[in-house]
Protein backbone atom coordinates (compact mmCIF):
# COMPACT_ATOMS: atom_id res chain seq x y z
CA UNK A 1 0.00 0.00 0.00
CA UNK A 2 1.22 3.52 -0.80
CA UNK A 3 2.45 4.98 2.54
CA UNK A 4 2.14 8.50 1.16
CA UNK A 5 -1.50 7.87 0.30
CA UNK A 6 -2.14 6.53 3.81
CA UNK A 7 -0.63 9.70 5.31
CA UNK A 8 -2.78 11.84 3.04
CA UNK A 9 -5.90 9.98 4.19
CA UNK A 10 -5.00 10.49 7.85
CA UNK A 11 -4.34 14.16 7.19
CA UNK A 12 -7.69 14.34 5.42
CA UNK A 13 -9.54 13.12 8.51
CA UNK A 14 -7.80 15.71 10.64
CA UNK A 15 -8.46 18.51 8.15
CA UNK A 16 -12.16 17.62 7.89
CA UNK A 17 -12.46 17.36 11.65
CA UNK A 18 -10.82 20.70 12.36
CA UNK A 19 -12.81 22.41 9.60
CA UNK A 20 -15.94 20.93 11.13
CA UNK A 21 -15.03 22.05 14.66
CA UNK A 22 -14.32 25.57 13.44
CA UNK A 23 -17.65 25.68 11.63
CA UNK A 24 -19.35 24.29 14.72
CA UNK A 25 -17.83 26.97 16.95
CA UNK A 26 -18.83 29.93 14.85
CA UNK A 27 -20.45 28.98 11.57
CA UNK A 28 -22.89 26.58 9.93
CA UNK A 29 -23.66 23.48 11.98
CA UNK A 30 -26.95 21.99 10.79
CA UNK A 31 -27.17 19.30 8.12
CA UNK A 32 -27.05 20.51 4.53
CA UNK A 33 -29.46 19.37 1.78
CA UNK A 34 -29.48 19.91 -1.97
CA UNK A 35 -33.04 18.60 -2.40
CA UNK A 36 -34.44 20.96 0.24
CA UNK A 37 -37.44 21.62 -2.04
CA UNK A 38 -38.63 18.05 -1.31
CA UNK A 39 -37.59 18.18 2.34
CA UNK A 40 -38.81 21.63 3.41
CA UNK A 41 -40.10 20.51 6.80
CA UNK A 42 -36.49 19.83 7.88
CA UNK A 43 -35.80 23.57 7.88
CA UNK A 44 -39.28 25.03 8.50
CA UNK A 45 -41.85 23.45 10.87
CA UNK A 46 -44.61 25.64 9.43
CA UNK A 47 -44.48 23.57 6.21
CA UNK A 48 -45.92 20.57 8.09
CA UNK A 49 -49.39 19.65 6.83
CA UNK A 50 -49.38 22.25 4.05
CA UNK A 51 -49.95 19.59 1.37
CA UNK A 52 -53.06 18.24 3.14
CA UNK A 53 -51.80 14.67 2.71
CA UNK A 54 -49.96 12.21 4.90
CA UNK A 55 -46.33 12.23 3.75
CA UNK A 56 -43.34 10.02 4.61
CA UNK A 57 -39.86 11.11 3.51
CA UNK A 58 -36.49 9.39 3.76
CA UNK A 59 -33.20 10.96 2.66
CA UNK A 60 -29.56 9.84 2.50
CA UNK A 61 -26.68 12.22 1.74
CA UNK A 62 -22.99 11.36 1.34
CA UNK A 63 -20.84 14.47 1.04
CA UNK A 64 -17.36 14.69 -0.49
CA UNK A 65 -17.27 11.00 -1.43
CA UNK A 66 -13.72 9.62 -1.27
CA UNK A 67 -12.62 11.71 1.71
CA UNK A 68 -12.40 9.74 4.94
CA UNK A 69 -14.51 11.23 7.69
CA UNK A 70 -16.64 13.27 5.25
CA UNK A 71 -20.24 14.13 6.30
CA UNK A 72 -23.01 11.54 5.96
CA UNK A 73 -26.64 12.37 6.77
CA UNK A 74 -29.78 10.24 7.06
CA UNK A 75 -33.28 11.57 7.73
CA UNK A 76 -36.68 9.95 8.18
CA UNK A 77 -39.87 11.90 8.77
CA UNK A 78 -43.66 11.63 8.69
CA UNK A 79 -46.15 14.51 8.62
CA UNK A 80 -49.88 14.94 8.21
CA UNK A 81 -52.85 17.23 8.89
CA UNK A 82 -54.56 16.15 12.09
CA UNK A 83 -57.98 17.85 11.85
CA UNK A 84 -60.84 17.82 9.35
CA UNK A 85 -60.35 21.42 8.20
CA UNK A 86 -56.59 21.04 7.63
CA UNK A 87 -55.79 23.78 10.13
CA UNK A 88 -53.44 21.69 12.29
CA UNK A 89 -50.38 19.72 11.18
CA UNK A 90 -48.13 17.31 13.06
CA UNK A 91 -44.73 15.91 12.08
CA UNK A 92 -42.16 13.52 13.57
CA UNK A 93 -38.62 13.12 12.27
CA UNK A 94 -35.18 11.76 13.08
CA UNK A 95 -31.92 13.14 11.62
CA UNK A 96 -28.56 11.40 11.99
CA UNK A 97 -25.47 13.39 10.98
CA UNK A 98 -21.96 11.89 11.12
CA UNK A 99 -18.78 13.88 10.41
CA UNK A 100 -15.41 12.31 11.17
CA UNK A 101 -15.24 11.52 14.89
CA UNK A 102 -18.55 13.27 15.66
CA UNK A 103 -22.07 11.87 15.55
CA UNK A 104 -25.28 13.84 16.09
CA UNK A 105 -28.87 12.61 16.28
CA UNK A 106 -31.87 14.95 16.29
CA UNK A 107 -35.36 13.90 17.36
CA UNK A 108 -37.93 16.46 16.16
CA UNK A 109 -41.61 17.06 16.82
CA UNK A 110 -43.18 19.70 14.55
CA UNK A 111 -46.56 21.39 14.95
CA UNK A 112 -48.22 23.86 12.58
CA UNK A 113 -51.36 25.98 12.51
CA UNK A 114 -52.72 27.14 9.13
CA UNK A 115 -54.90 30.17 8.41
CA UNK A 116 -56.62 30.06 4.98
CA UNK A 117 -56.75 33.13 2.74
CA UNK A 118 -59.23 32.47 -0.03
CA UNK A 119 -59.45 29.17 -1.93
CA UNK A 120 -55.74 28.51 -2.52
CA UNK A 121 -53.67 30.67 -0.17
CA UNK A 122 -52.78 29.97 3.45
CA UNK A 123 -50.46 31.34 6.10
CA UNK A 124 -48.92 28.79 8.47
CA UNK A 125 -47.12 29.13 11.80
CA UNK A 126 -44.90 26.34 13.07
CA UNK A 127 -43.22 25.23 16.28
CA UNK A 128 -40.45 22.63 16.61
CA UNK A 129 -39.34 20.70 19.69
CA UNK A 130 -35.86 19.17 19.38
CA UNK A 131 -33.93 16.57 21.34
CA UNK A 132 -30.23 16.50 20.39
CA UNK A 133 -27.70 13.74 21.16
CA UNK A 134 -24.00 14.43 20.56
CA UNK A 135 -21.04 12.02 20.53
CA UNK A 136 -17.38 12.94 19.94
CA UNK A 137 -14.73 10.20 20.03
CA UNK A 138 -11.14 11.52 20.00
CA UNK A 139 -9.76 7.96 20.12
CA UNK A 140 -10.45 7.71 16.38
CA UNK A 141 -7.85 10.40 15.66
CA UNK A 142 -4.19 9.68 14.91
CA UNK A 143 -2.45 12.30 17.06
CA UNK A 144 1.21 13.32 17.10
CA UNK A 145 0.92 13.73 20.86
CA UNK A 146 -1.34 11.07 22.31
CA UNK A 147 -1.19 12.75 25.73
CA UNK A 148 -2.54 16.10 24.56
CA UNK A 149 -5.29 16.86 27.12
CA UNK A 150 -7.17 18.91 24.53
CA UNK A 151 -8.07 15.63 22.80
CA UNK A 152 -8.63 13.38 25.82
CA UNK A 153 -12.16 14.13 27.01
CA UNK A 154 -14.79 12.52 24.80
CA UNK A 155 -18.45 13.51 24.63
CA UNK A 156 -20.85 10.60 25.25
CA UNK A 157 -24.55 10.92 24.32
CA UNK A 158 -24.76 14.47 25.61
CA UNK A 159 -28.42 15.51 25.45
CA UNK A 160 -29.58 19.07 24.86
CA UNK A 161 -33.16 20.20 24.21
CA UNK A 162 -34.04 23.00 21.82
CA UNK A 163 -37.02 24.71 20.21
CA UNK A 164 -37.56 26.25 16.80
CA UNK A 165 -40.16 28.25 14.92
CA UNK A 166 -41.17 29.25 11.42
CA UNK A 167 -43.76 30.96 9.25
CA UNK A 168 -44.77 29.79 5.77
CA UNK A 169 -47.10 31.30 3.15
CA UNK A 170 -48.22 29.53 0.00
CA UNK A 171 -50.72 29.60 -2.82
CA UNK A 172 -51.09 26.96 -5.54
CA UNK A 173 -48.15 28.60 -7.44
CA UNK A 174 -46.08 30.55 -4.94
CA UNK A 175 -44.45 29.93 -1.57
CA UNK A 176 -42.24 31.79 0.88
CA UNK A 177 -41.04 30.94 4.36
CA UNK A 178 -38.84 32.20 7.18
CA UNK A 179 -37.62 29.95 9.98
CA UNK A 180 -35.16 29.38 12.83
CA UNK A 181 -35.08 25.60 13.55
CA UNK A 182 -33.00 26.02 16.75
CA UNK A 183 -33.62 29.13 18.84
CA UNK A 184 -31.43 28.22 21.82
CA UNK A 185 -27.65 28.62 21.54
CA UNK A 186 -26.74 25.61 23.66
CA UNK A 187 -23.19 24.63 24.70
CA UNK A 188 -21.68 21.12 24.78
CA UNK A 189 -18.54 20.25 26.76
CA UNK A 190 -16.04 17.45 27.37
CA UNK A 191 -17.04 14.77 29.84
CA UNK A 192 -13.58 15.12 31.37
CA UNK A 193 -12.65 11.44 31.04
CA UNK A 194 -9.57 10.36 29.09
CA UNK A 195 -9.16 6.99 27.36
CA UNK A 196 -7.11 5.71 30.34
CA UNK A 197 -9.83 6.73 32.79
CA UNK A 198 -7.98 9.78 34.07
CA UNK A 199 -10.08 12.85 34.82
CA UNK A 200 -8.70 15.70 32.71
CA UNK A 201 -11.32 18.24 33.71
CA UNK A 202 -14.24 19.75 31.82
CA UNK A 203 -14.09 22.67 29.41
CA UNK A 204 -16.45 24.38 26.98
CA UNK A 205 -16.25 22.85 23.53
CA UNK A 206 -19.14 23.54 21.18
CA UNK A 207 -21.70 26.33 21.05
CA UNK A 208 -24.78 25.85 18.91
CA UNK A 209 -25.57 28.87 16.73
CA UNK A 210 -28.95 30.05 15.46
CA UNK A 211 -29.53 29.41 11.74
CA UNK A 212 -31.96 31.69 9.87
CA UNK A 213 -33.57 30.26 6.72
CA UNK A 214 -35.50 32.11 4.04
CA UNK A 215 -37.01 30.13 1.20
CA UNK A 216 -39.14 31.12 -1.78
CA UNK A 217 -40.20 29.81 -5.18
CA UNK A 218 -42.77 30.13 -7.96
CA UNK A 219 -44.26 27.62 -10.40
CA UNK A 220 -44.80 28.68 -14.02
CA UNK A 221 -47.05 26.64 -16.32
CA UNK A 222 -45.07 26.49 -19.56
CA UNK A 223 -47.84 24.44 -21.19
CA UNK A 224 -50.25 21.64 -20.25
CA UNK A 225 -47.38 19.19 -19.77
CA UNK A 226 -44.44 21.24 -18.51
CA UNK A 227 -44.04 23.28 -15.34
CA UNK A 228 -41.02 25.36 -14.40
CA UNK A 229 -40.03 26.24 -10.83
CA UNK A 230 -37.17 28.56 -9.86
CA UNK A 231 -36.42 28.59 -6.12
CA UNK A 232 -34.05 30.24 -3.65
CA UNK A 233 -32.88 29.13 -0.21
CA UNK A 234 -30.89 31.59 1.91
CA UNK A 235 -29.15 30.59 5.15
CA UNK A 236 -27.68 33.06 7.60
CA UNK A 237 -25.51 32.15 10.60
CA UNK A 238 -23.73 34.69 12.79
CA UNK A 239 -19.99 34.41 12.17
CA UNK A 240 -20.31 32.66 8.79
CA UNK A 241 -20.68 33.87 5.18
CA UNK A 242 -24.21 34.16 3.84
CA UNK A 243 -25.16 30.96 1.97
CA UNK A 244 -27.49 31.17 -1.03
CA UNK A 245 -28.83 28.19 -2.99
CA UNK A 246 -30.49 28.90 -6.34
CA UNK A 247 -32.28 26.12 -8.23
CA UNK A 248 -34.36 25.71 -11.38
CA UNK A 249 -36.46 22.58 -11.95
CA UNK A 250 -38.75 21.43 -14.76
CA UNK A 251 -41.62 19.01 -14.13
CA UNK A 252 -42.64 17.01 -17.20
CA UNK A 253 -46.06 15.34 -17.40
CA UNK A 254 -46.30 15.40 -13.57
CA UNK A 255 -43.85 12.47 -13.63
CA UNK A 256 -40.25 13.50 -14.30
CA UNK A 257 -38.41 16.47 -12.79
CA UNK A 258 -35.01 17.70 -14.01
CA UNK A 259 -33.04 20.64 -12.73
CA UNK A 260 -29.83 22.43 -11.86
CA UNK A 261 -28.73 24.22 -8.69
CA UNK A 262 -25.95 26.55 -7.63
CA UNK A 263 -24.70 27.04 -4.07
CA UNK A 264 -23.00 30.42 -3.96
CA UNK A 265 -19.19 30.08 -4.12
CA UNK A 266 -19.47 26.42 -3.09
CA UNK A 267 -20.92 23.95 -5.61
CA UNK A 268 -23.05 23.22 -8.65
CA UNK A 269 -25.65 20.44 -8.66
CA UNK A 270 -27.73 18.32 -11.01
CA UNK A 271 -31.13 17.07 -9.81
CA UNK A 272 -33.56 14.47 -11.12
CA UNK A 273 -36.78 13.04 -9.72
CA UNK A 274 -39.30 10.48 -10.89
CA UNK A 275 -42.79 9.65 -9.69
CA UNK A 276 -42.69 5.85 -9.75
CA UNK A 277 -46.39 5.55 -8.93
CA UNK A 278 -48.89 8.15 -7.79
CA UNK A 279 -47.84 7.84 -4.12
CA UNK A 280 -44.08 7.16 -4.57
CA UNK A 281 -41.43 9.59 -5.76
CA UNK A 282 -37.65 9.13 -5.86
CA UNK A 283 -35.15 11.96 -6.27
CA UNK A 284 -31.40 12.09 -6.87
CA UNK A 285 -28.87 14.93 -6.66
CA UNK A 286 -25.17 15.21 -7.40
CA UNK A 287 -23.03 18.13 -6.18
CA UNK A 288 -19.63 19.13 -7.47
CA UNK A 289 -17.51 21.49 -5.39
CA UNK A 290 -16.16 24.57 -7.18
CA UNK A 291 -13.78 25.39 -4.32
CA UNK A 292 -10.22 24.04 -3.90
CA UNK A 293 -11.72 21.05 -2.09
CA UNK A 294 -13.35 19.97 -5.35
CA UNK A 295 -10.02 19.84 -7.15
CA UNK A 296 -8.55 17.08 -4.99
CA UNK A 297 -8.38 13.56 -6.44
CA UNK A 298 -9.94 12.19 -3.24
CA UNK A 299 -13.22 14.11 -3.62
CA UNK A 300 -15.71 12.56 -6.03
CA UNK A 301 -18.49 15.02 -5.22
CA UNK A 302 -21.61 14.64 -3.06
CA UNK A 303 -24.57 12.33 -3.64
CA UNK A 304 -28.08 12.59 -2.26
CA UNK A 305 -31.11 10.34 -2.69
CA UNK A 306 -34.63 10.93 -1.40
CA UNK A 307 -37.69 8.67 -1.34
CA UNK A 308 -41.11 10.15 -0.60
CA UNK A 309 -44.53 8.61 -0.14
CA UNK A 310 -47.71 10.70 -0.28
CA UNK A 311 -51.13 9.32 0.54
CA UNK A 312 -53.05 9.51 -2.79
CA UNK A 313 -56.13 11.04 -1.15
CA UNK A 314 -56.39 13.93 1.24
CA UNK A 315 -56.77 13.12 4.91
CA UNK A 316 -60.38 12.72 6.13
CA UNK A 317 -61.62 11.68 2.68
CA UNK A 318 -61.40 15.05 0.97
CA UNK A 319 -60.85 15.29 -2.78
CA UNK A 320 -57.22 15.61 -3.86
CA UNK A 321 -56.31 18.31 -6.41
CA UNK A 322 -53.44 18.19 -8.91
CA UNK A 323 -50.19 17.56 -6.96
CA UNK A 324 -48.26 20.72 -6.07
CA UNK A 325 -44.72 21.09 -7.38
CA UNK A 326 -43.42 22.06 -3.91
Strand order of the largest sheet: 1-2-3-4-5-6-7-10-12-13-14-15-16-17
Distance between the termini: 49 Å
Report the uncertain regions.
1-28, 193-197
SS elements, strand count: 17
What percent of the residues sit in helical stretches (DSSP H or I)? under 10%
Number of helix segments? 1
Structure classification: mainly beta
- Average pLDDT, to the nearest integer? 82
Judging from the principal axes of the Cα atoms, what is the shape? Answer: globular
How large, in whole angstroms, is the Cα Rg? Answer: 21 Å
Q: Which H/E pattern describes the elements? A: HEEEEEEEEEEEEEEEEE
Please give the largest β-sheet: 14 strands, antiparallel, barrel
Proportion of beta-strand residues: over 45%
What would your notes on this structure say?
By secondary structure, this protein is mainly beta. It is 7% helix and 49% strand. It has one helix at 3-26, and strands at residues 55-62, 72-81, 88-99, 102-117, 121-136, 155-170, 174-180, 187-189, 204-207, 211-218, 220-221, 226-237, 243-252, 256-263, 267-275, 280-289, 302-310. The strands form 2 sheets. A 14-stranded antiparallel barrel has the order 1-2-3-4-5-6-7-10-12-13-14-15-16-17. Strands 8-9 form a two-stranded antiparallel ribbon. The protein starts with a helix and ends in a 16-residue tail after the last strand.
